[in-house]
Amino acid sequence: MSLIATLKTALKRVLRPEPKPLTDFEYRTLPWIDKKEADIDAFIRQYGRKNDFPYDLREKLQFWKENGYVILEKAIPDSWLDMLWSEVEEVFTNNDKYAIKIQVDLPEYTGRSVQIAKDLPQNVINGQYIKVIDFHNSSVAAKKIMLHKSIASFLEAVFGDRVIAMQSLFFKYGSQQATHQDFAYVVSENPSHLAAAWIAMEDIHIDSGPLFYYPGSHTNQKFNFGNGIFFNGQSARDPNDFARFIEANCTALGQQRKTLLIKKGDVLLWHAALAHGGDAINNPALTRKSFVCHYSSQNAYRHHRQKPDEEPVRHTYNGADVFAHPFLKDHEDLFKGGEDL
Hints:
Layout lengths: L2 H13 L24 H7 L10 H11 L1 E4 L5 H16 L7 E4 L9 E3 L5 H4 L4 E4 L6 H7 L2 H11 L3 E9 L23 E6 L10 E3 L25 H14 L5 E2 L7 E5 L4 E3 L11 E8 L16 E4 L2 E4 L18
Parallel strand pairs: 5-13
Antiparallel strand pairs: 1-9, 2-3, 2-4, 4-5, 5-11, 6-9, 6-11, 7-8, 7-10, 12-13
């Protein structure tokens, strides 16, 4: 590079410096409910979908603001869950037919961490440390459950904006994942506009590796991976450092760890920054069937992450959207049983 070109590059950096990595959510971008001046009563008076939410909306919003989560008891009918789980079991049983993506976190497994179902041996796909990725693209029932009226109407209230479902995971067994906060790994265009649902597909047992969480931790100081609050290939610190920081912070603030022992059809909704993880599986014979979904808002997640330069194809249920997968068109709504729900 010539001296003139070098000077021009240096001048550009001075005039237009690289943005500093985020070390917290920007206050101006927070959902209304996360701001100090949030007035829940005033919001409820003008919220047009309060009749779509069959719980006490004021109570749930207040609890969310203080604790970073809510539980919706018996939100999803058992019959819906049974239909959906039968579809997931079909993929496990006849995996040679399907190109659905599977994440393998099995410690001794030497293959790629993300593969398609038909490339995995039966003993792996039916075992622990398996996540089915974005099965909602293949299933009408999964779409209808992830955008169920109770979930969509509550999260629209939280965001103050139309809800967009971003991604999903199915678990047959407990994840045994270390303490973390979702925003570090699941990134929307506005990181504070992120929430999740944990839908129990069966009654959860204490020895099955249940989810644990720290109420109130959503307001805690964020961890800096050395290059900001997101974990990526340039991060100087790792998920173990992240877990230690979060747990120490929660302990110092007197935030008590809770275990999630909910019943089939119950839904846990949680804030992007709620500290949580998966407990150890004390009884390997026990399953912990669950459907986990992540959500953002219309203004914070405009395009499918696999094709951010193109207007997405939308599926709409209950006033919320989920995008069709841009590259797996032959698998979109492969399982159509949910059309009758």
